[in-house]
Input
Amino acid sequence: MAFVLPSRDPILVLGGTGKIGKRIADNLASAAIPTLVASRSGEAPSNQWLTGVKFDWFDKSTWENPWKAAGEHAVRAVHIIAPPIVDSFDLMKEFVDMALTKGTRRFILQSGSPLEAGDDKLGMGLLHEYVRKLGTEGKADWAALRPTWFMENFSEVQSHIDSINNEHRIYSATDKGQVPFVSADDVAECAVVLLTQPAPPHTEYLLVGPKHMTYDEVAQIIGELVGKRIKHDHLTDQQFQDRMVSLGMPEDLAQVLAEYEHRIALQKERHSNETIQNLLGRKPTCFRTVAEKVKEVWI
Output
């Protein structure tokens, strides 16, 4: 993985304790790059290169904390993950505009494969369109990462963990649809490259794994590794949405997620490319490799 020359100017990682953020922070710290780990708790792992900062999308009084923590140094880049609401664009746009006034120019967006630039189902599609416009006008550097579905969802999302362990089931509305599941580790490494490379990216990156897989195949592999029969339960869109709401997800988010699962059922996520190979100089990680490493969570 290639990095720019060492700098004392930190990189800001929003959602720095989440699935992707914590991996980005770990990679940056391993490369001796000062990193501001932003989260509602304001905590960070004990590491000389990591500084925890309190940040809450819904408390604008916390938005300037990263720049205060940076002190005399500039925040040279920001990794942005959206707040957990459907209508998130206005908040994110206001934050980007504020960051620009602080001298920060590079924004790497954590989007997703279903979200094209300008898609208004979730705010990140609109933010993608906005930062692209800023880039065209020479006001900002940007990239949008659009990974497909994460392999680690099955080992890090509590609803999947519980259903696999307690019911020996995986629930989805994807039917027989195929997905090139992608490793969160690979996505984080790609983000680090784009946060640190000298040349501004100014483009989007569709990140996919090495193989198209159904949820039935995922269930079979997990079952083989843990010595249990794991079944994929095929839900209707409405059943899936109701399940997500019963687990605490806001209804509007659950509706969007059900629509995205339906896209899979319609075979609209069967992407293939060499983007990860081109960014990282290696092939993307396969699902069985990831599952083998984390299988204890299902035992």
Remarks:
- The chain has two domains: 11-150+181-208+271-284, 151-180+209-270+285-299.
